[in-house]
Write a structure and sequence with these properties.
single chain; 164 residues; alpha+beta; 5 helices
Length: 164
Amino acid sequence: MKKLILYTMLIILSLGIVTACGNEKDSESQSGNNSPETEHTETQAESAPSIQTGVFIDLNSIDNPLFNKDIKVLLERTLDSLANKKEKEFKSVFANEETANAYMYLFGKDYAFEKIGTVEEDQEGRIVVEIRGKVVSDNEVTTPNSYYYFVKNKQDKWSLGSID
């Protein structure tokens, strides 16, 4: 009885495999004469999505006492350097080269900065600015909310401390 069940299962499994392989060969022969239009469509699907890059925020219209002139200038330089891929300018907004190098993974992507969210001071005295927009990374458009943390050094000079 056990042998009968085993042989029956083996036959059913074999038929399933043979049937699946047969259907694959049939579909290959049917799609073997692809027209140029079909190939073109497939190429388009594989190309990277694009967005209009740039900074589309009027930072001067933000009326918040925490969002002072120095922070506006730094944020504008940061966003512009990311959107327009200006490496030297991007690195210049950070307090030191080590911090700048830690955030270079963000550089070189396509950015569209579209809206400012919150402007707050956190418990450590940093000014946190939320920016909303789009980024193309790994052939995918995402809409992250990024947080830019501005810190003041002992000489009362602002710099970008981190990006989250």
